[in-house]
Design brief:
The chain has about 325 residues and is mainly β. The chain is about 15% helix and about 35% strand.
């Protein structure tokens, strides 16, 4: 009887040790007025939105993946002249979010179209995602994208601004294209240590944060998986999704770059985010329970004890058989 109980205890310990490293794929959608403690939910068949504007609830036909929630807040920094990077010494300030069917926008530079989107014209804006637990962000949904362009005053031919967001002589800068399929450029940061407060933080250094990637030529994408980011699977409880700015300093060995990147001509609305919620976070900043990642000490110890117990029971059983 004791042997049976020990076997059950060992199996349960092994199961618990493995479950500690269990991760779940989750989706949060932002096309609603509420942006606090949004639940991660399965997207209903034929639908696009899952998270409800009511805190910690899902829309009809959807269900929660786990208990990880996210809250959103808006921020901006000031650009240099002609949008050529960041203004010297600029720091992040808060800005109100605005809800649209295409997702969340920011109106630090006005509420007219397209300034009500998250953009990098005059100011570079970003949305801070504050999760209740560690998440490996995997893709970003955009429900609206637009880009500045230069329209020839005589022929109406379209070109794009040069470096510094300057249109050639004889052309006029237009604020957006109308087909809503224009590729835009974004930057993605993750918090790693120190204060999680973004207000007042220097944008050119981003102390305590890492620039995970600059991603160019992103179009409208409202189907999960969305525009792919963070290919190395880094995790954090705080992620900043910003319009691109060349003044953001890359993080050595971390920052990945994809597509063409330009300053001052990108406008988008943040529709959704998808990722892996982590039961554990490792010292290498990735979710537990995958590939060659090393488990955290607690889960490793529990699993090791269970394995040793099972091995001991097998040896005891063999000894009895030999006797």
């Amino acid at each position: 009887m004791k042997t049976v109980n020990l076997r059950w205890l060992s199996c349960l310990s092994l199961f618990a040790g493995l479950m500690i490293s269990t991760n779940a794929h989750a989706v949060w959608t932002f096309g609603q007025s509420g942006v606090s403690t949004l639940a991660n939910c399965t997207v209903p068949s034929g639908g696009t939105h899952a998270s409800s504007g009511t805190p910690s609830t899902c829309v009809s036909g959807s269900s929660k993946v786990d208990t990880t929630t996210v809250s959103l807040s808006g921020y901006y920094v000031t650009n240099a002249t002609n949008n050529a990077g960041l203004s010297s010494g600029t720091t992040w300030s808060t800005a109100p979010l605005m809800s649209y069917s295409g997702g969340q926008g920011i109106n630090s530079d006005g509420t007219s179209d397209p300034n009500h989107a998250v953009d990098n014209n005059g100011k570079t804006e970003g949305v801070l995602l504050s999760f209740s637990s560690s998440v490996a962000l995997t893709s970003i949904g955009t429900g609206y994208t637009a880009s500045a362009y230069c329209k020839n005053n005589t022929t109406s031919a379209i070109t794009f601004p040069s470096t510094g967001d300057v249109c050639p002589t004889g052309t006029t800068k237009q604020t957006k294209q109308t087909d809503n399929t224009t590729g835009i450029d974004i930057s993605v940061f993750r918090w790693v240590d120190g204060s999680t407060t973004l207000t007042g933080k220097g944008a050119s250094t981003m102390s305590g944060w890492q620039l995970v990637g600059n991603y160019g030529d992103i179009g409208v994408d409202t189907s999960n998986p969305y525009n792919l980011v963070n290919s190395t699977g880094l995790t954090s409880s705080y992620w900043l999704i910003s319009a691109y700015n060349s003044g953001f300093a890359p993080t050595t060995g971390i920052t990945e770059t994809r597509g063409g990147l330009t300053n001052g001509d990108d406008y988008f609305k943040l529709f959704a985010a998808a990722g892996t919620t982590c039961a554990t976070t490792l010292t290498n900043g990735k979710c537990g329970g995958s590939g060659s990642s090393v488990p955290e000490p607690a889960s490793l110890a529990l699993t090791s004890v269970a394995l040793l117990s099972v091995a001991g029971l097998r040896r005891r059983s063999k000894s009895k058989q030999a006797a």
